[in-house]
# Entry
Amino acid sequence: MTEYPAIAYGLTADGAITAILSNGKELPAGADTVVDRPVLRGWNGREADKLKLVDRLSRLPDDLLADFSEIAPYPSEAWPDRIRIYTRTRFEIITAISVLAEKADTIRAVIETQEPGSMTLLLADRYVPYAEDGEAGEDEAPDGDNTR
# Structure
């Protein structure tokens, strides 16, 4: 018998936690379950994309997967499989299911070397640290001086 590890967690309509296994199956999680994997939110009606995401997540290094706290679909016309990831280390990442595996090293490098902020990792990669108020900052100083 093959045992499939929990890759992510989901929430039922009544708020119960489910474990999403690497084979895509969902099982009720016990009341004492430690949620040490991302919670997938907003995937109703997007089951095919959810299965692709679970497959990609199952290939990520365990420490990186454990840092993801929540993943939600964030589709656009150009990127129908675009997602938004929130991390426990306070990063917000916009990427796509189709490029997630190839962007894993970039995600890790930014998380390990930069202050919390926002990353967009699609065709081109972009990182912006959060401003003092916790929102993604602009590329210019508050007084308009862009010499920093």
